[in-house]
Specification:
alpha+beta; 5-stranded antiparallel beta sheet; 32% helix
């Protein structure tokens, strides 16, 4: 696939340039998300990258992997040094490993493979490179957004009286799969878990959770305390839908809200405040702006509206209003008040200023955006108003 080969080559050139700037001679990539980024496909094995632009794919499985001039079949990582010697490549003085995600045993094994080479943590550099997407990556996320919006367009047809939130989510998930959703999502971090997304109705929105998501929810089991809890959705409750948009290995993140009958006026005020925040950030989030400034803009608008008690939670508040998104749902940068990263053209962000009203539920909008020179391009421009399911 010439197009994929050219795309991967572009990503690896960017990575090699970043390695040069960091003084990292070589890098060995082993985690699924970064293997996909570095190759555009999934396999068991490693991607070896040097600062001067050499890339080798060490493949363990599958056995019939598509032939590639840069591919070397190995049974185990201990064979890598001999293969490097065969290819005329010296052992690096230092090598980067994904120390944020590799297990201790895997790290120690690879440390022995590279002998006297200094071990460095490659995870921050990989996260930094993945922040800025190529136009092909953006086109894949745009395609995700089209499919995700098509599913959301049909959600109001799924509701039946006395439906539980779990039944509602299952019906939505069926739509997702029929639309082509891969049926899973990748999240970053060992303490982050979720199914195909969250459907949170009524008081369940105020149930604190252990995960770093904007909303909690009790879930149906202590084994996964997140999202829908199995309660019947009742008149006067808000229903927040934040389900997965992974149709091709990349993701868009999108939230919309439905009501069951009329909600209290405060719910509509808070929802419109969320939309007001997004309109402001769409204009102000320019390349060079500090990410933390986006959070502070949102905080100021919330204070003007007098909605601080409900912002990003009620019993438990999330300390952010968004995050990077791409191969993984929760990429960097986090949109917090403390984040000093500068926005760059091509960054993709999910922005989700939300509110939780006790007894009513969660309201607010989430869209996935691309940072452009003139502001944010919305990849999920579906209607944002609260729609009544009755």
């Amino acid at each position: 696939m010439p197009e994929l080969r050219g795309e991967v080559s572009l990503r690896m050139r960017r990575l090699s340039a970043a390695m040069q700037g960091a003084g990292m001679e070589a890098m060995l990539i082993a985690s699924n998300a970064n293997l996909y980024y570095a190759s555009g496909r999934m396999f068991r094995g490693y991607v070896y990258v040097t600062a001067d632009g050499k890339v080798i794919y060490f493949v363990v499985r599958p056995a019939d992997f598509e032939p590639d001039p840069d591919m070397v079949v190995i049974r185990k990582p201990e064979l890598i040094p001999a293969e490097l010697e065969r290819l005329g490549l010296p052992m690096p003085a230092n090598v980067g490993l994904e120390l944020d995600v590799l297990s201790y045993s895997d790290t120690e094994r690879l440390r022995k493979v590279f002998g006297t080479s200094e071990m460095r943590n490659a995870s921050p550099l990989l996260r930094q490179c993945r922040q800025v997407k190529t136009e092909r990556e953006i086109s894949m996320m745009r395609e995700d957004g089209v499919h995700q919006m098509e599913v959301y367009r049909k959600i109001d047809q799924l509701y039946k009286r006395d439906m539980t939130d779990v039944e509602f989510q299952i019906a939505i998930e069926q739509l997702l799969r029929k639309e082509g959703n891969l049926g899973f999502l990748r999240v970053s971090g060992p303490l982050m878990e979720i199914n195909l997304g969250s459907v949170i109705a009524g008081p369940n929105a105020d149930a604190p959770g252990p995960y770093e998501f904007a909303m909690g929810g009790a879930g149906v089991s202590p084994a996964l305390p997140c999202g829908a809890c199995g309660e019947i959705m009742r008149v006067g409750e808000a229903v927040m839908v934040d389900v997965n948009g992974c149709f091709n290995g990349y993701q868009t993140d999108m939230t919309r809200v439905w009501s069951i009958g009329r909600l209290p006026d405060l719910a509509y005020k808070a929802h419109e405040c969320s939309r007001r925040i997004l309109r402001r950030l769409e204009k102000e989030a320019l390349p060079g702006v500090e990410v933390g400034e986006l959070y502070r803009m949102a905080e100021a608008i919330v204070a003007e509206e007098g909605l601080e008690a409900y912002f990003m939670g009620h019993r438990q508040h999330a300390p952010f209003i968004g995050h990077g998104v791409g191969i993984e749902l929760n990429e960097t940068p986090p949109v917090t008040g403390r984040c000093r990263d500068l926005l760059k053209e091509g960054m993709t962000l999910a922005l989700e200023p939300k509110f939780v009203l006790p007894g009513v539920g969660a309201v607010g909008v989430e869209n996935t955006y691309v940072v452009r020179p003139s502001g944010l391009e919305n990849l999920t421009p579906a209607p944002e108003e609260i729609s009544d399911l009755l």
